[in-house]
Specification:
This protein is an all-alpha fold and 83 residues long. It has helices spanning 2-7, 12-19, 24-30, 35-45, 47-60, 66-81.
């Protein structure tokens, strides 16, 4: 039951209080994290994974490149220079 509560998002300290444990170490005996949940948390929070996700997001939403912006500025300057 304590493991399910932990996997459901309950804080370890709340579980400790509900179980009536004086020591957090005792509570940890009853809150064995499943490997599946541990892997999911690792994948979601690992700095390397976050950097990769950010890089992919930037690549997906590329927008104009610096070259595109320079070309647009040059075209605008040419239009402004015409009489």
């Amino acid at each position: 039951m304590a493991t399910l509560m932990l996997e459901g998002g309950a804080d370890t300290r709340y579980i400790q209080a509900m179980l009536g444990h004086a020591s957090l170490e005792t509570t940890q005996i009853y809150t064995q994290v499943s490997i599946r949940t541990l892997k999911a948390i690792h994948t979601a929070t690992h700095p390397g994974k976050l950097a990769e996700a950010g890089k992919r997001a930037l690549e997906a939403d590329q927008g104009p490149t610096p070259e595109d912006l320079l070309e647009a500025l040059a075209e605008e300057a040419e239009k402004d220079a015409r009489p």
